[in-house]
User: Fold this.
Amino acid sequence: MVIMEKYIELALKNLKIASLNEMQKESIEVNKTQQDCVLLSPTGSGKTLAFLLPLLRFLDEKQNHVQALIITPTRELAIQIESVFRSLGTPYKVNATYGGHSMRVEENNFIQAPAVLVGTPGRICDHIQRGNLDLENVSTLILDEFDKSLEMGFHDQMEYILAYTKGLKKRMLVSATEMSEIPTFTGIKDSIEINYLVEKSDNLTLKMVVSNEKDKLQSLFDLICQNSNEPTIIFCNHREPVERVAEFLADLGIVVTFFHGGLEQAERERTLIKFRNGSSNYLVTTDLAARGLDIPEIKYIIHYHLPLTKDAFIHRNGRTARMSASGTSFLLVTKDEELPKYISEQNIPVEAIKEESFLPKEPKWETLYMSGGKKDKINKIDIVGFLSKKGNLEKDDLGLIIVQDFTSYAAVNRKKIRQVLAAIKDEKIKGKKLKIGISR
Assistant:
């Protein structure tokens, strides 16, 4: 128990969390045994810690094979879970495997098997078929965002993977929606349920904005200007309008990023890094960003396109008004637009757009890219020291730092980033000359 308390303390400190919430505490208590568990909780409620902390009870430092397998539907969620596990400061090795990541790097990672493997169904299947992965001794299985995995069509791939996990003793299924039936291939039976699914809190305000234009672009711009420079996610139903909306806003002077499944993995990661670190306060996206991503403190949601289903509406809105914070969700509609029943029956008030508004200020941060990372033995402390000493930055001029395998990103005060680039152009970090520039 002393060890568990140590890991909890480290997690709270490294993730800058004041304390565990009730759901996380209950999960730790309930999962003291090897009985299967189904954890139901909304998006953004802290489910990752709720299954990672109990997992530590079932890991053994003396073992040198994969002991726990975490299957998750998206690349970004695999990366996020890997990062949160590292923050626990345990002696256990963790690796993430997902499409778009270097197959060679992943194969090298498996030479000394991780205790915890996090991955997407397709890439895990690839490694099994190539003979890279031995899952026979996996004793703990976690199916994260399981409902999303089924929705994305990963049923057959997950069933294929689980056929190779014959030694399972503990299963945890994590979902943001209730399921009438759990597929038999999971092997979950006689499970204990932790259910924190409740109606959205009173902290969420719904408003409707009626546009006079069919394409709604000008109304969207006016709404953004009226709301001031607060973190905002703008949802579209398809990839093409995501890019069109982002381009329109950028042309009008809004610092905006966009995100969808058609981007290369490196582009997706850069986009989310810039949104997380405050280099842009506006993210235009498909429903890919509605769930499973670590995007905290969203003030506004704007439905540029109305969601196609009630579940999609719930998950989009779940990105704001989390925990005790408040948030507002705007539905941008045209005068003649037909509203689905789950929206029309809510009697949502109409918000008028002010005649005079101002272009939001540029964000404080801009993102610096560096062509070196973990595989080059570079860490956050190295980057802080380098930018402070060689780049002459004060502590308050440096924001969030992300270190990946071969690249790193640092949020730097936008007003000072060019003088930093000039100061470090001939400098080395840990004896290496890196390519450094403003992330695009």
About this structure: The CA atoms of residues 139 and 168 lie 4 Å apart.
